[in-house]
Amino acid sequence: MLGVKKVRILNKDSRSEFAGFGKGYAIEIYDLDKTTRQAFLHDPMESLPDKPDTIGWKSMGWKRAPLDTTYNEIYFRALNYDGSNAEVKKTENDIRSSLKKDKCYCAFYYFPDLKNIRLSQLYVYDVAINRLYIIDSDF
Known about the structure:
With 139 residues, the protein is an alpha+beta fold. It has helices at 34-42, 72-78, 86-99; strands spanning 9-20, 23-32, 58-64, 104-111, 119-126, 131-138.
């Protein structure tokens, strides 16, 4: 999930909403242990989150936030949920706060290209609180 050999999860939670016809939005939240953080920080730029079905998907490996404006569409798509689920909206705000921190990293997959994103998966790892967010967006 982080691209490191061993990930120890202390707590897992999720928020989601589905719109039918295969469309939906989900956020997974993982609190990780200190040894996982140390393994990640050893070489974060080389590690890419696991995604077994990557045919046709493009990716960007871990980079320290904030990313340059080239990737605004990824952020916009992942962090602009417009449904009524209050938990999802609060979690999105938490992620936005994490992205402003010095010790936060991002990676993502998108399909088919940046000009016409139909599917995306954004990973945000807030090292300061040792929390990983994975946002799947298919709207």
